[in-house]
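Subject: Sanity check before I submit

Could someone independently write out the structure tokens for this chain? I want to compare against mine line by line before I put it in a report. The sequence has 164 residues.
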Amino acid sequence: MIFKKFFIVVISLFIFNPVFALDKDLGVSKRFNMHMYKQDEQTICNLYSSPITQSTPYRGKNVKLHITNRPQKNHRHKLSINMGTNVNTKKPMLVMIDNKKYTFFAHKNFIFPYNKDEKRIIRDMRRARKLVIKIYDNNDKLITDEYSLYGLIQAISVIDRACR
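---
Independent answer below. Compare away.
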């Protein structure tokens, strides 16, 4: 009987705790997963996708393209791509959206667009079919990842509605 009461109290803490209440899956749109959660009292909505093809051996589950909204910081459609390995910043980096080239910068294992280009890049991604990244890791190995952009328009609409 004591175990049963203890179990009910523990389950109630998880169900009614506001930290857990906001960690929410917003669904899937083609290749994109949408998610909403709370971090440091701020609501964050993001979408993410894994590459459809990778030219290098397995680099972990964290190889993903992310677009994030943080309404409390007035951040909307912030693009970041986790490459799963540290990027060699001394070598050329190529990011193409349907054969149109873009300039990104790297920090550790992430690549980001420059702020001045971000809105244009997101707009072009919404109109495109694929995004291809060619970079070198710290061992001078060429890494090529390809992402499908099908479902991106719907996925962005979902996170925009969830995080106004």
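---
OP: Matches mine. For the report I'm noting this point. The chain has four helices and twelve strands.
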